[in-house]
Specification:
Elements lengths: L5 E5 L3 H12 L3 E5 L11 E4 L1 H9 L3 H7 L5 E5 L5 E6 H8 L4 E4 H14 L3 E3 L6 H10 L2 E4 L7 H7 L6 E13 L8 E7 L2 E7 L4 E9 L8 H11 L5 H8 L7 E7 L7 E2 L2 E3 L2 H4 L8 H18 L3 H30 L12 H8 L11
Parallel strand pairs: 1-2, 1-8, 2-7, 4-10, 8-15
Antiparallel strand pairs: 3-6, 4-5, 9-12, 9-13, 10-11, 11-12, 14-15
Length: 373
């Protein structure tokens, strides 16, 4: 799109920084507006599946990401006694997809992205909250305004729909943290324990560090601190495998957080005039989908390419929504279906994890890569 060269991006999270990087690499002039004083490091870790690595390859960031993350070899679903119910071979999945999976601490991922932003001399306006009036001003000053300002209080989403669209609580809490990997856990495997309406996941992040999440169904209670919820997790998982108790009993509270998990219903559109939503602002899914960051990166790749291919913004944004809505909605639906299964008292059945079927789902809409990284 020769006449659309200036882009304002609201939000400096994974979606916002990634959009800034790829758009800049493709010849756009980009500025980022972030309400906080620095890049956010909220969250413990992120698993980047092969569809995310496809986009990171196009952004020339695979080597940087690989240097600070790890490539897990498998995903194991286990019961509360620690017995393996099913296993996904991630090396086979890599062969199917053409790209690996990488798990990484969120702060390391954000630092990688921000380092690239600085190398590209992208202007980031920190301490710059944006409200509806500011969005109107930006839409007049820039050819395109991209709302990458998250699921909870997206000003860009409110500007598009003229009313707050509230995220929906899905009935469970996530207590997350970062720990030294227990000696009785393989640091090459993602381990997911489930039973009796509880879930505990352990994901390798560095050579000797993991990030983890404890989850169960509960009502929202804003009166309790993260320390309270870590103590509650210690009680909930007291009779579970030793590795879980080691993690919870030695957790550094400064790395922990508690999240009452919300998502969005699918939206009827993501854009109005020259303002468009990407990432969680457009299609926030539950962590049970495993696809939040990956779908945000797909947004970045598709939106930037469509802007380059089409002469007018309405055409590009309309095609962007048509291209992305089904796949993004599928991730949202899968996340809800799995959460309903995980946090019920019904006997837990292993989730079917076939590499060929996962490859077909995750790589849909992406050009088939011709190499293994």
């Amino acid at each position: 799109m020769q006449n659309t060269r200036r882009i304002a991006i609201i939000g400096a999270g994974i979606a916002g920084l990634s959009m800034a990087i790829f758009a800049k690499q493709q010849g756009f002039d980009v500025e980022v507006f972030e309400k906080h004083s620095e890049i956010s490091q909220i969250g413990a870790g992120v698993t980047l599946w092969p569809n995310a690595l496809y986009v990171l390859d196009k952004m020339e960031l695979i080597n940087a990401i690989s240097a600070v993350g790890v490539q897990p070899c498998c995903v194991q679903q286990m019961n509360q006694q620690g017995q393996v119910n099913s296993k996904l071979d991630l090396l086979q999945l890599s062969q199917e997809c053409g790209y690996p999976s990488i798990s990484i601490l969120r702060k390391d991922l954000m630092l990688c992205l921000y380092e690239q932003v600085k190398q590209l001399n992208i202007l980031c306006h920190f301490n710059t909250p944006v409200d509806n009036q500011d969005i109107i001003k930006l839409s007049n000053q820039f050819d395109l305004v991209v709302g990458a300002d998250g699921r909870n209080r997206s000003q860009a989403r409110e500007a598009i729909f003229q009313t707050p669209i509230e995220p929906i609580y899905q009935g469970f809490i996530n207590i997350i943290g970062i720990s030294t990997t227990p000696s009785n856990i393989k640091n090459t495997c993602i381990e997911e324990f489930r039973g009796s309406g509880l879930r505990f996941g352990i994901v390798p992040a560095t050579a000797d560090t993991c990030y983890w999440a404890a989850a169960w169904a509960c009502d929202i209670n804003r009166n309790y601190t993260t320390k309270h919820w870590v103590n509650a997790a210690q009680c909930q998982f007291k009779r579970w495998p030793a590795a879980i108790n080691t993690i919870l009993n030695t957790a550094d509270i400064h790395t922990c957080n508690h999240i009452f998990v919300h998502d969005l219903d699918p939206l009827p559109y993501w854009h109005q005039n020259n303002v468009v939503l990407i990432g969680d602002a457009a299609h926030a899914s539950l962590p049970t989908s495993g696809q939040g960051a990956s779908q945000a990166l797909e947004d970045v790749w598709h939106l930037t390419n469509l802007l380059n291919q089409h002469e007018t913004i309405p055409d590009a944004l309309s095609l962007f929504y048509q291209t992305r809505i089904n796949k993004a909605t599928t991730a949202q639906t899968i996340g809800r279906q799995l959460a309903k299964q995980f946090f019920s008292d019904m006997p837990q059945q292993p989730v079917k994890m076939d590499p060929a079927k996962l490859s077909s789902l995750w790589m849909q809409g992406l050009t088939t890569p011709n190499m293994i990284t």
